[in-house]
Specification:
heterodimer, A: alpha/beta, four-stranded parallel β-sheet, 17 helices, about 55% helix, B: alpha/beta, Nucleotidyltransferase, domain 5, five-stranded mixed β-sheet, 10 strands, about 40% helix, about 20% strand, globular, binds iron/sulfur cluster
């Protein structure tokens, strides 16, 4: 038992970005639950599905990946994964999928409840595991599924042909959703949603770019929490407002020379991969105890959706991190490392996610070579706590710290 | 002045006492690692061998898996940096260290000052580590230290194709049941450890000169298989298993010096 005497936490300031962002994330679940109670049809939506579509139609949707992360962060990952394994799912498949499929089958999750869906929205720009996950949801719950195909992009740009291919599917998805829910699409409303989403995205990009200052005005672990709002609510005015507050706070921190990172920032790293939610405290403490601030992650770049029109939106969804080629993905990260004065790269080899781990060895090797920084990886899992070893993590982070330290001394 | 380096691993504890001329005063190994009385026994034996008392030790650095729970040290350094430093002490020109311990395998790159610049480690699987050899030796009813001699008798190699320790165990059992020659099988087992770790080395790109440290380095059959895999000579010292403790003792000397400067 720790002898540490915990100071009582001050009540959160309702004007702070943290409070506002947490409330938006919480409100999203409450809104869907209420809509369901009112008898409205509600959906489950993949994180890289164009959220502008349900938002414009005024539909209430929730996000299984976000729910699974919440369940895992609050200690329910192993229980839910085991239930899914008992249903016959292999423990090799994504833990988000296992948690979600267990939940859809009726397993309770007090950690983060949400209502069962009346339709599901999926998009292949995430991964092929997710396609099967959503197909199973649709079959088992006997509900309609809208599946959009956005192929893996081998180029840096999105061709006109691909844009047209995506546009037609988006329009078709809108028509299907109008039919399923009885709601009507309005281009004026879409214009509004697009503008708000752009405003939210600009504030997010500007806030995360504040890490260019040394020391950084924020602890990069903040981003892992706040990005939930970017994924699920960026088309809502309150999200734009909260992100602008976040930017303002970071600017103020910088002007005052303070940071949400507690302690002295001695080293700056980029964290690669999805967070290890069941071990979030352990992984963040392992860095903080050594004076390491995780100043950036690909999420800092990934959720800045800025576009001018419907076709621009189609192209944006073909450029999400999971749908782009190694070289493009590498270049984005190299830029983040250079802009934010990163001194080391810590890679989470995520046993759940073949997509985020498969090309990681080679990509991180290239980033290390281009930025002349050490690269260290550790085994973990975004939601299944059984795939992580604290001792292994600790040794590797210490090794990384020692290299960064000896480079400074040299 | 006297400096102690202690390396607490998963299966063994190693210690080295050194003076300020970098002369080794004593070294000792106990086959008991983290969570046992091994570390205390190592210290006791070191002091007895050098004819010293507890209070004669000026500074202690602990390393290894058990470094966080050993309260008697002045500071702790990761086994990565310690193996780098200890190996550079044994071979000043070395640029790459392959350390295979009880539970993990690491490949460490060094600069010309013996400082670690990069490393890779095995993933969570025990294949390619000392534990793999222990399990295999167990099936063959041998001690790990006998594997080298047994492999030397082989006229051929029986390859073990499974990298998973559990699968390899059943593979070895079925080979035995089919009447396989034991030396050929042992040579195959040693080769399997080498090829697994060679994959890690290739990820970094072979940088001459290469040495091996850690307990598995004592197994000549693994060293020779590694040389064949990598096409380069593998330097070896009988002190290979003490490389981590040696590095820790050298760090102890550096850190004590720095603290003095501060005073
Ligand atoms: S975590 Fe990986 S495997 Fe799971 S849904 Fe996301 S991209 Fe797919």
């Amino acid at each position: 038992m720790s002898e540490e005497v915990r100071k009582p936490r001050p009540a959160p300031d309702p004007a702070s970005a943290k409070y506002k962002l947490n409330m938006i994330a919480k409100q999203a679940y409450d809104d869907v639950a209420e809509a369901k109670k009112r008898g409205e049809l509600i959906g489950w939506c993949a994180s890289n599905f164009p959220v502008e579509i349900p938002e414009t139609l005024g539909l209430h949707v929730c996000y299984p990946e976000n729910q699974a992360a919440g369940i895992a962060a609050r200690g329910g990952g192993e229980r839910m994964c085991s239930i899914a394994e008992g249903m016959g799912y292999s423990n090799d498949i994504c833990a988000y999928a296992r948690i979600s499929l267990a939940y859809a089958s009726g397993a309770e999750a007090e950690e983060q409840p949400m209502p069962l869906p009346d339709y599901v929205l999926c998009c292949s720009n995430i991964c092929s595991c997710m396609i099967k996950w959503y197909e199973n949801l649709s079959r088992e719950l006997q509900i309609p599924m809208i599946m959009i195909d956005i192929p893996f992009n081998p180029d840096y740009e999105v061709s006109d042909a691909e844009t047209a291919y995506i546009r037609n599917q988006f329009l078709d998805a809108i028509a299907q959703l109008e039919k399923i829910t009885g709601k009507k699409w309005s281009w004026d409303r879409y214009q509004e949603v697009m503008e708000i989403s752009g405003r939210t995205s600009r504030a997010w990009l500007a806030a995360t770019a504040m890490a260019r200052y040394v020391p950084s005005p924020f602890n990069g672990f903040d981003l892992l929490n706040h990005m939930a709002v970017m994924v699920t609510a960026r088309g809502k005015p309150e999200a734009a407002e909260a992100m602008e507050t976040l930017l303002k706070e970071y600017e103020e921190n910088h002007n005052k020379g303070i940071s949400t990172y507690r302690g002295e920032e001695q080293h700056r790293i980029m964290f690669e991969g999805i967070a290890c939610w069941p071990w979030l405290r352990v992984t963040s403490r392992g860095l903080r105890d050594r004076g390491i601030n995780m100043v950036t992650t690909i999420y800092a770049d990934a959720f800045g959706f800025i576009y001018e029109d419907f076709d621009g939106m189609c192209r944006a969804y073909a450029k999400v991190p999971n749908a782009i080629n190694l070289e493009y993905a590498r270049d984005k990260r190299i830029r983040l490392c250079q802009d934010n004065h990163v001194e080391g790269l810590l890679v989470h080899t995520n046993r759940s996610c073949k997509l985020w781990s498969g090309f990681m060895n080679e990509m991180s090797r290239q980033i290390g070579a281009a930025c002349e920084i050490p690269v260290v990886s550790f085994d973990g899992d975004q939601a299944d706590p059984r795939n992580f070893s604290e001792a292994q993590y600790d040794t590797r982070v210490q090794g990384l710290t020692e290299i960064m330290q000896s480079r400074k001394e040299a | 002045m006297v400096f102690m380096g202690i390396d607490i691993g998963s299966t063994t504890s190693k210690g080295v006492l050194m003076n300020e001329e970098q002369a080794i005063l004593a070294q000792h190994l106990v086959h008991a690692g983290i969570g046992t009385s091994g570390p205390a026994a190592v210290k006791r034996e070191l002091l007895a061998a050098a004819g010293l008392q507890d209070e004669d030790i000026d500074y202690t650095v602990v390393t290894g898996y058990g470094r966080r729970t050993y309260a008697e040290a002045d500071s702790q350094v990761s086994e990565l940096s310690c193996h780098a430093k200890g190996s550079a002490f044994l071979f000043p020109d070395v640029r790459m260290v392959i350390d295979i311990g009880g539970q993990d395998a690491k490949v460490i790159c060094l600069d010309s000052h013996g400082r670690m610049t990069d490393f890779v480690m095995n993933d969570k699987c025990a294949a390619g580590t000392g534990r793999f050899l222990e399990v295999m030796a167990g099936i063959l009813q041998m001690d790990v230290s006998e594997l080298e001699q047994e492999a030397a008798k082989a006229t051929q190699t029986l390859r073990i194709s499974s990298t998973c320790t559990v699968f390899a165990e059943s593979e070895v059992i079925s080979q035995l049941a089919a009447g396989a020659e034991i030396p050929a099988l042992v040579k195959g087992i040693c080769g399997s450890v080498a090829s697994r770790t060679a994959g890690l080395v290739r990820r970094m790109g072979v940088e001459e000169k290469v040495c091996m440290s850690g307990g598995v380095a004592n197994n000549g059959a693994v060293r020779r298989a590694m040389e064949e895999e990598l096409g380069t000579e593998i330097l070896y010292s009988p002190l290979a298993q003490f490389a981590g403790a040696l590095g820790a003792a050298l760090y102890a000397m550096e850190k004590a010096g720095k603290e003095k400067e501060h005073e």
